[in-house]
Amino acid sequence: MIELYYAEDDPNIAEIVKDYLKLKNFSVSIYATLAEMKQALKIHVPDLILLDWNMPDGHGDSLCKWIRSTWTELPIIFLTVRGDSRDIVSGFQNGADDYVVKPFELEVLYSRIAALLRRTRNTAQPYLSCGGITIDQNRRAVSCNLEEVCLSVSEYQLLLFLMQNKGRTVTRDKILEQVWDVNGNYVNNNTLTVTMKRLRDKLHQPACLKTVRSVGYRMEDTI
To answer: What pLDDT does residue 122 have?
Structure first.
């Protein structure tokens, strides 16, 4: 399922778009202010952003610029009544990938979204996130609450494997196999324990990284 965040202060439009995209296998989260979406992005990064221009607490182009400064490859589409050429140019200059002017046909919006996702998904999804922790796979960079964290190779590989299996419990044996054995580094359980401790310390003891006693570990979004 494709995750989409939509900043829209008109509840009628928001629900129409949400209901339609749900039929297309999208999970849509609606945010009535820029601040709400910004806070949500600090916790979890979706597959795509829909962004209105005129919001109660500011203009969408400012949030677009902020998003682009942090997530360079996160797809962003403006969905707005502001169809003046200067606004459209400004939207693109601030980092938007596409610009759809209201009123619009839902089928056209979906086609634009699908086209953008085809272009951006030629490579693997660049961002994995959970509980305020984000991995930029293209840069091999990790951030916690938007602050970059320096990890060792084994710490990064451990976090990446857990992120790739988010929501599933991964056994200690499976982690040892996929993080160390597959690279020809055969280590014991103590190495995993020590690496996990160091990882948790660097990530400020995240609540989303859970120990499943006598089994292994699981990462899951916390509310």
So the answer is: 53
Model confidence, pTM: 0.81
Mean predicted confidence (pLDDT) in 114-127: 78
The pLDDT of residue 223:
59
CA–CA separation, 112 and 213 (whole Å) = 46
Supply 175's token pair. 């982690």
Name every residue whose Cβ is closer than 8 Å to that of residue 212 and which is 6 or more positions away in sequence: 169, 218
The phi, psi pair for 106, rounded to 5°, reads: -60, -35
Residue 158 predicted with pLDDT over 90: yes
What is the CB neighbour count within 10 angstroms for residue 106? Answer: 14
Does residue 90 contact residue 61 with C-beta atoms inside 8 Å?
yes
**Residue whose pair of structure tokens reads 């964290």 in the numeric block:** 149
Secondary structure, 3-state, the chain: CEEEEEECCCHHHHHHHHHHHHCCCEEEEEECCHHHHHHHHHHCCCCEEEECCEECCEEHHHHHHHHHHHCCCCCEEEEECCCCHHHHHHHHHCCCCEEEECCCCHHHHHHHHHHHHHHHCCCCCCEEEECCEEEECCCCEEEECCEEECCCHHHHHHHHHHHHCCCCCEEHHHHHHHHHHHHCCCCCHHHHHHHHHHHHHHCCCCCCEEEECCCEEEECCCC
Nearest to 59 by CA among 80, 43, 41: 80
